[in-house]
Amino acid sequence: MNSQLEAKVESYNYANVQLGNIKTSITDNQNRLSQAQATLGVTQERLDKRISGIYRNGSSGILDVLMDTKSLNDFLSNYDMLAKLGEQDRNDVEQIKMLKSQIVTAQKQLMGEESSQQSLVSQLATDKNSIQAGIADRQQKLDSIHMNIAQLQQQEAAQQAAEQATEQQQLEASAAVSSNSGGSGSGGSGGGGGSSSPPPAHTGGVVAIAMQYLGVPYVWGGASPAGFDCSGLVMYVYAQVGIYLPHSAAAQYEAGTPISYSQLAAGDLVFYGDGGIEHVAIYIGGGQIIQAPYPGTVVQISPVSGGGTYRGACRL
């Protein structure tokens, strides 16, 4: 359940990144559309005035210019001006055609982007409800499990008490057998089971920064010391060293350079997931990571294998 919930949270985060990109694209297209419309207005007004003037005053053909000139210099000067006016008219007509085409294209693109944005917003709302329902369902099952555990513990304690009483009666009845078996019950402790202490804190870098947030509760969508999800923790920590990442494990993987497991060094990012990249953690060295695992937990240090199904690693 935790793995499935984490996948939904990271899908939600990635959709938010996409939504931000769509909003930026819409703003850019709106600006281009406004500029094209303004240029079209100016060009069309200039051409309208030119056409109106020709209509009122008649056309200025080459014969009219020739008849109205008193010298060759006058003719050349007037003819050059007439040619330039004609060229400007042609340029204005071509520019108006081009601008109208650009406006139609930009309007169609805006409609498509706005439709994509509406679909994505609707998807985000559905995803959010699904995540919240998943958290509630998980908590309900967890509470039920805790109750079952308490009942089982009570039953086990009662059973152990009964077994101890029976064993004591058997020992008292078979003192000789008990003495020969040498039941000292010393049972050695067996050692630390691989729980090594975390490496010493660094004097700088992302590992030292991340260590400051040990114990901060997991909050899906969280990206501040009030609460983190997995990619929110990574984004917040790296921002403090001037590396700005998107709030999505998949997008963070895309932002880095992939490295092999044997190349892992403190500060690298490690990624997990069953059906894709669904979880991210920071490698701190010594085969350990710091991560915000799932709802109900806190930012903590874990072995690399404690993040889930290993998918890869990258270096920023």
Q: What percent strand?
A: 5-15%
Can you give the mean pLDDT? 77
Assign a percent range to the helix content. 55-70%
The number of E-state strands comes to 8
Shape: elongated
Widest sheet: strand ordering = 3-8-4-5-6-7
Rounded to an integer in angstroms, the radius of gyration calculated over CA atoms is: 37 Å
CATH topology call of the largest domain: Helix Hairpins
Order of helices and strands: HHHHHEEHHEEEEEE
User: Which architecture of the largest domain would the CATH scheme give at its second level?
Assistant: Orthogonal Bundle
Counting DSSP H or I runs of 4 or more residues, the number of helices is 7
Salient structural properties:
two-stranded antiparallel sheet, 8 strands, 316 residues, 2 domains, elongated, endopeptidase fold (from Nostoc punctiforme), 6-stranded antiparallel sheet, alpha+beta, Helix Hairpins
Question: What would you note in describing this structure?
Answer:
This protein is an alpha+beta fold. It folds into 2 domains: 2-140, Helix Hairpins, CATH 1.10.287; 205-315, endopeptidase fold (from Nostoc punctiforme) (Alpha-Beta Complex). Helices cover 62% and strands 10% of the residues. It has helices at 2-57, 62-68, 72-173, 175-181, 205-211, 230-239, 249-255, and strands at 223-224, 227-228, 257-259, 269-272, 279-285, 288-291, 300-303, 310-315. Strand 4 and strand 5 form a beta hairpin.
